[in-house]
Amino acid sequence: MSDEEPPRRRMVKPPSGGLEAGRHKPARLKTAYRRTPSQQAWLERQINDPFSAEARAKGYRSRAAFKLSEIDDKLKLIKKGTKIIDLGCAPGGWIQIALERGAGPVVGVDLLEVDPLSPATIIQMDFTDPACGPRLMELLGGQPDIVLSDMAPNTVGHRETDHIRIVGLIELAVDFAVSVLKPGGSFVAKAFQGGETAEVIGRLKKHFEKVQHIKPKASRADSSEVFLAATGFKGPSI
Fold first, then answer.
1. How far apart are alpha carbons 185 and 208 in whole angstroms?
2. Scanning 11, 25, 51, 110, which has the fewest C-beta atoms within 10 Å of its C-beta?
3. Candidates 3.40.50.150, 1.10.1060.10, 3.40.50.2300, 3.30.470.20; CATH matching 65-233
4. Calpha distance 76→38 (Å, rounded)
5. Which pTM was predicted?
6. Average pLDDT per run of 10 along the chain, which is 238 residues long?
7. Annotated active-site positions, please?
């Protein structure tokens, strides 16, 4: 899911945190011609965001790449030859970090079309399609060591309905991870503060040695975005 494009109605993109822009006066776009106020604000935020600037400088497809790199720096999940499945991988920032750190094979899926990132395999498909999970496993050629999920659902602006959709998508990702991970494997998923239920956390604790919330510096401070990191997979039948 990209945060390098203007907000789209089909995706949840709450403002996500980062470093202070410094003492310089924030840059403003010279013209707002044909832009909505939200698009104007989003573009100005991107211009002044240090993580977005660094992502461009390093050739990362999105500032979200730094979220995974921070999580991996903390947990040391990705090693040479680590098999990874990335759910909701557009535009590919997490895959770039995984490949950079020696993972492989890496397979990603998203509703959006994603430009190739060799040697990773990326498919355009709806993860909620029952055929998607088996297809990902076939492409990976074995059990993954890590399942990543940066997925977020469509929202309608109704708090209770949006909450149900957010929780439902996290639960689907958990179901998939629990059914396919290698023993000792890890699961990392985007969540939102207050957006996941006690049942989700309880299930993760049942199947993993350790479950924690992580708020990377690259996730904007005013965002409710957090990441669930579950490590030490104990098996599907626990």
1. 9
2. 25
3. 3.40.50.150
4. 37
5. 0.77
6. 42 38 41 58 54 68 91 97 97 97 98 96 96 98 97 73 80 96 96 75 95 87 84 87
7. 190
